[in-house]
Amino acid sequence: MVQLDNMLEVHHIKKHYQTKNGPVYAIGDISFKVEKSEFLVIVGSSGAGKTTLLRILAGLIEPTSGEIVFRGQPVVGPPRAFAVVFQDYVRSLYPWFSVHRNVELPLVNLISDRAERRSLVDQMLERVGLRSQAHKHPQELSGGQQQRVAIARALAYRPEVLIMDEPFASLDAQTRSDLEDLMLQLKRDSGMTVIFVTHDVDEAVYMGDRILVLSRSPSTIATTVATSLPLPRDQITTKALPAFSAARTAVLTAIREQSSA
Ligand SMILES: Nc1ncnc2c1ncn2[C@@H]1O[C@H](COP(=O)(O)OP(=O)(O)OP(=O)(O)O)[C@@H](O)[C@H]1O
């Protein structure tokens, strides 16, 4: 029998927000498990609770009930082993610090040796193709470059789990596919686990090993689609495979069923 290494377990998460107009029921009841080194993608219509779920997974907000278990331990705050990249990279970078300093900051309390820390930052900036821009400030870079800085910062931290909330949503198509491929390559090299939210079904199928489709809120998991696409992926040949269109059809059908439900 195949032994699965479930590093993260989500047990019956429910979440409602208290507002002045009464409770908003965001997450109905969600349970799933994530294997080590898996690339798990979460899709669902607007307002389905994707960001809420990611924030709970990252230990940033508490669920109303249910439990997240990471390596056998309940998550009660942001775990050291997790890093998060949000869509809003402009606000996630410090404008008054250089690119290099932005990537270095989260490492200050982790790596006390300054030379070692700076060398790791240089390596990460090299990986995302920004070594020559290290001295600049974020606002001097393009949107795609700023998002690369946010990715370099998350990866320099060497997380076991990287949580990404629509990280490429506001980028042009070419930059987006370049960053998709960069992320897949970095993930393959590091063996980290990725949990990734997107609105884009093609991106979900291209990136994911498995896709969770959420129902409308209060959300549950409507369907799970395993992609079974060969690695490494390629923007042209992978998307021409029958398995790609089969997975795409399965995800789109589930989303359509939810929006007409
Ligand atoms: N802080 C909050 N207070 C009250 N309600 C909230 C809060 N955050 C989210 N909600 C509500 O919870 C529900 C789920 O929101 P969430 O942002 O998690 O959905 P989403 O699937 O990420 O949406 P989108 O795809 O549009 O970003 C929505 O009805 C939203 O209005």
Bound molecules: adenosine-5'-triphosphate
Overall structural class, as computed from helix and strand content, comes to alpha/beta
Helix run count: 8
How would a crystallographer describe the biggest sheet? Answer: 6 strands, mixed
Q: What's the end-to-end separation, in Å?
A: 38 Å
* Overall residue-averaged pLDDT value: 92
CATH class of the largest domain: Alpha Beta
| The CATH H-level homologous superfamily of the largest domain | P-loop containing nucleotide triphosphate hydrolases
Kindly estimate the percentage of residues that lie in beta strands according to DSSP. Answer: 25-35%
- DSSP strand tally: 10
Strand order of the largest sheet: 6-7-8-3-9-10
Helix content: 25-40%
Rounded to an integer in angstroms, the radius of gyration calculated over CA atoms is: 19 Å
Order of helices and strands: EEEHEEEHHHHEHEHEEH
Number of domains in the coordinates? 2
CATH architecture label name of the largest domain: 3-Layer(aba) Sandwich
Shape descriptor: globular
Family: Belongs to the ABC transporter superfamily.
Domain ABC transporter: 2-241
Organism: Sodalis ligni
Keywords: ATP-binding, Nucleotide-binding, Transport
